[in-house]
Write a structure and sequence with these properties.
469 residues; alpha+beta; Amidase signature (AS) enzymes; 38% helix; 14% strand
């Protein structure tokens, strides 16, 4: 990690990258307390309108910063005192974690999640909890506990979901690093809508739990930041093998930041505006195609082709309903009137599934995964839009149609991201342009099995191209 060429200045800390600040923390040019003070001031300035971080825990953060500062710099972890925001689905000991549900609106977490423990072990200072829709369900961040989160680029528009508070905090300068989680694009979609970077890593790359369903392989935790290098830095801090998670992977010998900074370039790239499974707004398709063609200018072969995703809709939606029934079925039985309609739909469908339906969904998932394996024997990278439509009005619960195609469920419009969830591949949303109305557009970048490091390297190479414009 190299120091910035210019002398470090404490003016406008909010505009600094996470990587720059970690370097400054290690050199003791700035303290965690000064960073917390800067964030608190920024939150007071902007978050009243945005509502990205409804729960603040600065007292806890300063206590943790005090303890960290008692250690030698060499023992302060990869983040060395950098503040981090955590999503309101993950337990942080001593902090109210509501999960966006009235059932838990006053519940204080007793213990922290494994991932939170890991972040704190690496010197991350948790200062805020980011807003999420109820139990993380839905592509728009709102709930009956804290209300709507609004897009910093246009307060009338949504940030998508479910990691919408995390993305909005990054876009508004209220965070340098924010953790998100992802099932149906819950991390990628908000990144695209807010013009930041969000990565869904491989299953097991970030330890998950404790959980009543430890073998559920749909949702993962991942890093979000304002640029690719900061995402790689955060993934390094989040990654560590944990025997309590049955999918947990060993930490790589070479760090993700180091690999990303090698700026490896793909040789053969596939681009599809729709993955063959969904309508897409023409403006979004055009912007993402232009971004994909930058790889051609970099010397790569770019083909307009997609893997075969036949069967993805029924398989994903069946397994999603099964997951909801397992995770929330008991709570729903005890509190039937305390869930929003979309979640009720998922839970009840899950409770009524037959063994034959679940078996068919799993078999289809296996076929799709095999097809992806064959596809990535020929291609280094698959590109497509992160979202099929630009940000929509915040009061609109979800997208019900696109290009004249009517959707039957509240998550049909998220097929372009949930298809990648189903086949368990690492994916990243990179800002790639703006609509005519000035709203950000994200390019979804997908890599082969456990290709997290290559994905970050490819993404940084492409990010450099945008920086040169």
């Amino acid at each position: 990690m190299n120091r910035a060429e210019e002398p470090f200045s404490k003016t406008n800390l909010i505009a600094r990258s996470a990587l720059q600040l970690v370097v400054a923390l290690r050199c003791e040019q700035v303290s965690p307390h000064e960073l917390l003070d800067a964030l608190e001031q920024q939150i007071n300035l902007v978050d009243g309108a945005i509502n990205a971080l409804p729960t603040l825990c600065f007292k806890r953060a300063r206590k943790h910063a005090d303890a960290l500062m008692q250690k030698p710099v060499s023992q302060r972890g990869l983040l060395c005192g950098l503040p981090v925001a955590i999503k309101d689905l993950n337990q942080v000991a001593g902090v109210i974690i509501s999960m966006g549900s009235p059932i838990f609106k006053d519940r204080v977490a007793i213990n922290s999640d494994y991932m939170v423990e890991q972040i704190e072990q690496q010197g991350g200072i948790i200062y805020a909890i980011s807003n999420s829709p109820e139990f993380g369900a839905g592509g728009n961040t709102f709930n009956d506990v804290y209300g709507f989160t609004r897009n910093p680029k246009d307060l009338a528009m949504t940030v998508a979901g479910s990691s919408g508070g995390a993305a909005a905090a990054l876009a508004s300068g209220s965070a340098w690093l924010a953790q998100g989680s992802d099932n149906a694009g819950s991390l990628r979609s908000p990144a695209g809508y807010c013009g930041i970077v969000g990565m869904r890593p491989s299953i097991g790359r970030v330890a998950n739990g404790p959980s009543a369903t430890p073998y559920d392989s749909m949702a993962v935790n991942g890093p979000m930041a304002r640029n690719v290098e900061d995402v790689a830095l955060f993934l390094d801090a989040m990654s560590e093998e944990d025997s309590r998670d049955p999918f947990s992977l060993p930490k790589p010998k070479i760090g993700f930041l180091t690999t990303a900074q090698m700026r490896k370039r793909p040789l053969k790239v596939a681009f599809s505006p729709d993955l063959g499974i969904t309508p897409v707004d023409p403006e979004i398709a055009s912007i993402c195609e232009q971004a994909a063609m930058k790889f051609k200018a970099m010397g790569a072969q770019v083909d307009f082709v997609s893997p075969d995703f036949t069967g993805v809709h029924s398989s994903y939606q069946t397994l999603r309903a099964h997951s909801f029934a397992m995770a929330l079925g008991g709570l729903y039985k005890d509190n039937p009137s305390s869930f929003k309609a979309e979640i009720v739909e998922n839970i009840e469908r899950g409770l009524n599934l037959t063994a034959a339906e679940i078996a068919q969904a799993e078999l289809t998932r296996g076929v799709l995964r095999a097809r992806m394996g064959v596809f990535f024997e020929d291609y280094d990278l698959l590109l497509c839009p992160t979202s099929i439509v630009p940000p929509f009005p915040v009061e609109q619960r979800y997208v019900d149609s696109c290009n004249g195609v009517e959707f039957s469920t509240y998550i049909d419009w998220l097929a372009i991201v949930y298809a990648i969830t189903l086949v368990s591949l690492p994916a990243l949303s990179l800002p790639c342009g703006y609509t005519e109305s000035g709203m950000p557009v994200g390019l979804q970048m997908i890599c082969r099995h456990r290709g997290d490091a290559d994905l970050l390297s490819y993404a940084l190479s492409l990010q450099d191209q945008f920086g040169e414009e």
